[in-house]
Amino acid sequence: MFGLFETGFQFFYWGNLLMLLIGGALIYLGIAKKMEPLLLVPIGFGILLVNLPLGGLMDYELQIKNTSGVPGKVISIEVDEASRL
């Protein structure tokens, strides 16, 4: 059991299990019951991929550099009035 705690399963919580069940249910409804398969199968597959232990899909962080110097302003876009015509 020691090796199991060195893998991604140490970050596997009840919410991940619930979402895996929901993803499986959506795939089942899409394939077996033929209820909107073009919609439910990709959504269910995406849910399964995102909730895999240490899949890395939810760990993305966006870092934006504040170039304007104003604390509440992230991006400054200069617009010339003549170029809008």
Notes on the structure:
With 85 residues, this protein is an all-alpha fold. The chain has a domain at 3-60. It has two helices and no strands. It has helices at 14-31, 37-50. The longest helix is centred in the first third of the chain and has 18 residues, at 14-31.
Please provide a brief summary of the model.
The chain has 85 residues and is mainly alpha-helical.
Short descriptors:
85 residues, mainly alpha, 2 helices, 0% strand, flat
Helix content: 25-40%
Let me know the number of strands.
Answer: 0
Rg, Å, rounded: 22 Å
User: Which sequence of SSEs, written as H and E, runs from N to C?
Assistant: HH
What is the overall silhouette? flat
Low-pLDDT segments, ≥5 res: none
The mean pLDDT is: 76
Assign the structural class, choosing from mainly alpha, mainly beta, alpha/beta, alpha+beta, or little secondary structure.
Answer: mainly alpha
> For the terminal residues, how far apart are their CA atoms?
68 Å
By oligomeric state, this entry counts as single chain
Q: Which range does the strand content fall in?
A: under 5%
Number of helices: 2
The largest sheet is: none
